[in-house]
């Protein structure tokens, strides 16, 4: 059945076919942007930050007498001294208000921030030029000139402010281009943006002659005249097509439909109109887009640069940040790369990404940033598809350096043999007339369409096939053998294929995908990522090297990796003429990249999952949960003698690639019915130990046994644990009750086993349990997280700082809950800084410092072994003389109040001491320990620190290094 065509008033008919989809996506995008901005603003801002709104008048272009008005807001921190500044740019379709929350956060950290609406957006006049170097980029330089005149801004020299630039997407490219043209810029942070807008909107990930070496993880090679990302291009054009207030924008011409250009500059408007019809860029359009891309300026960037790129992004892939990093590093610049579990298909940036940007800017502009921001060469990525992944969160890993930059070690790549899924070396696939039906792999702004596959199950085979990403007859597939061990793909993979021949004027268009195929046949297309390929027309077969999408994704042992080539995709401008295409593997190997890294020790903040339609989020969460429950379980080694012991840790150690040893030979045992407090100052290794216990990170040596089972990532015995370690990861758009229900369903256990009523009693949230979590205070989130940890009444419960954010009555309630919980025969391991609470709650204590155990035992023994005994007597002076005469007695002194004495008994029996006093005619009214756990803890840590310092000094004196 032919695809229906629609015509809207005032639009050319050739643009009508994608209009309905574009309009629908625009509505979703608008709602997402609005809800995202509201959520960010609702999360609070520093009340001490002052703001000033102003309109800056700048030249329309170099040498022009015409001007544009740029709407700005200046955020001033609460400080009297001049401070460094940040120029903050917004994303496409937004304005200065879109970055208000980020601006306030930066200002609260002591920076002056100038947020502004770019030309053609918000209340700013002028036309949208897609970061025209002579206009938008020149505006950035003009605003830096303005910052140099403000007395609140720190100057490096007259006219040269201490300034950084930052932005996401459209604003990220602007930040990079400004840094490449203005040497006054001292730091540059760009998020989810492009390197080459021509390659991003018209990708072609194939080359006839690939380079001999691919040094960086997400390096990609491509050719010009690619395939239009019709969905994303439509969103770009649609967001700027509305007329500006006051009618700003270029006047229509004879080659542009009346009103069609909206706020776009005429040159950009005509380029899009031409490309939307042909599906390919002209050479002039390619030159225009390249000139408005960081690729033309990156080699001139001298300021330290942070590149934050999303792993769930069908608009600007990881390869775009990779290319920018290579260009900056090749010119001698300093660059740090961070991939996060988000992007244009996941609500933009998240708290993790924005926090990394803030730390980077503060550190490089003031020198006061966090340690994680100081290592400019580090590379962080979020690992998805990992069997140890908890809930719907990706796990952060950090490598010492981004591979392949400057002197860094190149990325390792392993070759895996591929065979035809059909048994035929050559597979012929067809493109139907009109390119319809077309496979649906992703939705712009939403990402993978596979989450909708289940909804199509009742619509019949064709609809179901369309929503699962491939259509029979349109796809050639090649697969590896089952993997012997899990493999972590970090970056872009590559494969060589022979295509054709084809005589079609538009050449051959294919869409390459990399699937994770489970042992039961389930296929996962990570984030809906696809590589578009256009092979030029030829009367002979053409062999090309194809770069597959960049990702950080772990394929489990026993799974296969499939490479598929499809002839259609809804997100792209597919040629309309029918064709039959033959696809043959040329060397039958798939090169997969990997970057060894360690688990990052940063916390998991709750991620603001917002907008982009609640349906997509809920369905994606359910799919993730279903995947979680079906993960393969590993069979752990069991020590039968310990099956009744909740926890035994033996010689546990954890070292990182930089040589830091966070945990060094830790051993302790926790028995049934105990409440054990894990104590230690910051940096003692407590959280690292707990994360190894939970299977979140792997020990360097030693072992952990839970009920006799050796703990490893994904070990089945971990189902007997309940945990609250470093953040809850709740979905903010769901209520507290819905989050608890969703979490329990992920375990796959019956609802009646959840003991939900007990958990709700623990949470003590009242009617707030039915409110959305985004409205919760920190204390409310903490209580909900503890209730989640207690779902199912686990045999061993692990809590890291459970009382953070709780008020004194809630802390008292929590204390009683933990004591009662242990009295049922279950076990609790709790890490806390509130030593008075530990003393009243815990039966046993383990004290750590600098990665080692320095003391352990019962609370009574620990206090008794260290503190003096206090006696109340009728003749204190005589009592002191009597006690000092006892062999083995330690220090004895009179104390307050009157009639009290304190004696350090050491190993002496207190009963014997009391009898000696009574025999001497001294009346004893009471005898008690006066020492608190806090005193013992401080003494232990102080003594241990002194011991380590003296050992280091002694070693240094002997000519050795500690």
From TrEMBL:
- What are the record keywords, sorted? ATP-binding, Hydrolase, Membrane, Nucleotide-binding, Transmembrane, Transmembrane helix, Transport
- The portions of this protein that span the membrane are 20-39, 606-628
GO MF annotations in UniProt: ATP binding
Polar residues: bias regions = 417-429
Where is each ABC transporter domain found? 647-875
Q: Would you say which domain of life the source belongs to?
A: Bacteria
Gene3D superfamilies linked = alpha/beta hydrolase (3.40.50.1820), Galactose-binding domain-like (2.60.120.260), P-loop containing nucleotide triphosphate hydrolases (3.40.50.300)
Q: Which family does it belong to?
A: Belongs to the ABC transporter superfamily.
PANTHER family linked = ABC TRANSPORTER, ATP-BINDING PROTEIN (PTHR43335)
The name under which this protein is listed is: ABC-2 type transport system ATP-binding protein
Q: Which organism is it from?
A: Rhodococcoides corynebacterioides
